[in-house]
Amino acid sequence: MSTANQSVSVIIPLLNERETLDELYERLSTVLIELAVKYEIIFVDDGSKDGSIERIKKLKSSDTAVRCIRFRRNFGKSAALAAGFSAARYNVIVTMDGDLQDLPEHIPLFLSALEEGYDLVSGWRHDRQDSLTKRISSRLYNWTTALLTGVRLHDINCGFKCYRREVLDEVMIYGERHRYTPVLASYRGFRIGEIKIEHSPRRYGSSHYGVGRVFGGVFSLLTVILMTRYTNRPLHFFGLVGLMLSGAGALIDLYLVYQRIVHMQWLTNRPLLIIGTLFIIIGVQFILFGLLAEMIAFSYRREDDYSIVNADEEEEEAAGAASPGGGKRGKETVAR
User: Fold this and answer.
1) Would the pLDDT of 182 be above 50?
2) Sheet holding 192-197, edge to edge
3) Band of the pLDDT at 205, cuts 50, 70, 90?
4) For a pLDDT cut of 70, what percent of the chain falls above it?
5) What pLDDT, on the 0 to 100 scale, is given for residue 330?
6) Pairing with 307, which of 25, 27, 95, 170 sits 20 to 30 Å away (CA)?
7) Mean predicted confidence (pLDDT) in 51-62
8) Are 164 and 257 in the same domain?
9) Helix/strand/coil for 66
10) Is residue 53 pLDDT above 90, yes or no?
11) Would you give the DSSP letter of residue 92?
12) What one-character DSSP code corresponds to residue 201?
């Protein structure tokens, strides 16, 4: 693997991971030194209460490549990643969790995938070392996300990812949107890849996974779908829902009219009449809401709602394709 022009920022958001930090740092720095790249390690302490910050400060005092960002309280993983992205100085950014379930030794695999032409590479924990409940919910979550977004990744929620700087310059992270960075990047036209990685059992501390994160993920998924597929055409989303509800209500009411006219049945004791009428009213409201959203979207529509490839990079690729022995490599990169 060629790492001649690569410089790597490793961002590690953490919450109460004091026991893992020394080993994580040793293994991570060993891998990065062997790669012979310019690097930095950014620990983002998301309001830890177990003394993690003291361990980080100790590492920072002995290695100038270690940097630290400390939150006053727990703001969440998206905020931690956003702070790390903003502070990162290098052109390749790796994110990984601080619990040692992600193996630092896999970083060369991510960098190799970038060399193949990808802009974002996501890890796939194909043999996940977590509880059965967590594995089942994760598979359901990944299947649903792939179905609704069209981004076919086996493990979109994996925190072990590698990015080119250009991706993070265009994709804004907040709330719970860190889960859907590949979806947002794909929408902007970046090339998304996935590699299989090993997953280790958690040795220290406890998982921060909870029911609240499930609901947060569901709501964020809906937000991402609206902001990718329907940003400039909200009526297509709300109008479709409205037409479906209104159509269902109309069919119900037509059926009741048929029952009244043909079979002479009284409708005053039929709750179905109220349901059908309510569906029609709610459906019309959805359509009107979609029209209002269209007017708002038109008012705030950006003229530069697109993503372009740097012109200098295009010229370099063209020159590479024209040079002796460079044609095949150039075509492979463009194909991706």
Assistant:
1) yes
2) 66-70, 38-45, 7-14, 92-95, 161-164, 120-125, 192-197
3) low
4) 83
5) 35
6) 95
7) 93
8) no
9) strand
10) yes
11) E
12) P
How many CA atoms within 13 Å lie on the side-chain side of 46? 21
Residues 105, 178, single domain; the answer is yes
Angstrom distance (rounded) from CA 326 to CA 313: 15
Q: Of the given ranges (21-30, 145-154, 186-195, 196-205), which has the lowest mean pLDDT?
A: 196-205
User: Mapping DSSP to helix (H, G, I), strand (E, B) and coil, where does residue 41 land?
Assistant: strand
- Residues ≥6 apart with Cβ < 8 Å to 157: 138, 141, 142, 179, 217
Q: Which string of b and e fits 166-197 if b means at least 16 CB within 10 Å? A: bbbeebebeebbbbbbbbbbbbeebbbbbbeb
Q: How far apart are CA 171 and CA 86, in angstroms?
A: 12
Phi, psi of 26 (to 5 degrees): -60, -45
Structure confidence at residue 46 (pLDDT): 93
Residue 303, both tokens = 């003229």
Task: Examine residue 40 and state whether it is found in any structural domain, yes or no.
Answer: yes
User: How far is the C-alpha of 322 from the C-alpha of 324, rounded, in Å?
Assistant: 7
Residues 109 and 17 in one domain: yes
For residue 202, tell me if it sits in a domain. Answer: yes
Nearest to 31 by CA among 5, 68, 75, 1: 1
Tokens of 121: 């590479």
Say which CATH number the domain at 59 has.
3.90.550.10
Q: What is the pLDDT of residue 194?
A: 94
In a domain, 224, yes or no: yes
| Contact between residue 47 and residue 73 where contact means Cβ atoms under 8 Å apart | yes
Contact 59, 98 (CB under 8 A): no
Is 27 inside any structural domain?
Answer: yes
Top pLDDT among 219 and 192 is at: 192
Q: Identify the three-state secondary structure at position 40.
A: strand
Q: Is residue 82 domain-shared with residue 180, that is, in the same domain?
A: yes
Instruction: Look up the domain containing 276 and give its range.
Output: 234-300
User: Does pLDDT of 2 surpass 80?
Assistant: no
